Amino acid sequence: MARRSARSGFAPDAYAFPGGALEPQDGAPPAGLRHAAVRELFEEAGVRLDAEELFAFSHWITPPSEPRRYDTHFFFAPAPLDQIARADAFEMHDGLWIAPRDALQRYRERRLHLVYPTIKHLERLSAFASVDEIVAFVREKTIHTICPAPAGDTFEIPAGLEDAW
Fold it and tell me: Is a pLDDT exceeding 90 seen at residue 57?
């Protein structure tokens, strides 16, 4: 994870996973989504992966009530052992290797600024004891599109999808 730029139009200074937009050189969806993820991971964190090493993890769309809408695909890949991630110091700063449970604890202690989709992904990841367990899960996982509903000051996953996504 890394801290988003204070100049970011969405979630400034929040810690998040590297990501970004689909660009023409990435190709058309759905294959282009993997290429965009690989490109963005390298641009923002200096980590090289092959697109085939990525597993689709989830698909989230910002609720219609939000002023900025995003259609986001999340991917999972085991971290390459022979590479060192470094935040690009432009879009992302303060790179942080952290276990999901530790990130959530820091969030609860107000030491780490996170947004709802990141929190939900960390909660989902923290349910597994190892990377191998997550890989086994994502190989069989059905991808449901999640469009969280506003719930007071936060959001919630629509009924029936809380455990299915």
Answer: yes
Residue 123 within any structural domain of the chain: no
Mean pLDDT over 127-140 rounds to 95
Establish if 115 belongs to a structural domain: no
Residue 92 is encoded by which pair of tokens? Answer: 């992302």
**Domain containing residue 147:** 2-99+129-152
Compute the distance between CA of residue 37 and CA of residue 77 in angstroms, rounded to an integer: 11
Helix axes 116-125, 100-108, angle to 10 degrees: 140
The rounded distance, in Å, linking the Cα atoms of 34 and 73 is: 9
Residue 10 contacts residue 92 (beta carbons within 8 Å): no
Q: What is the pTM of this model?
A: 0.90
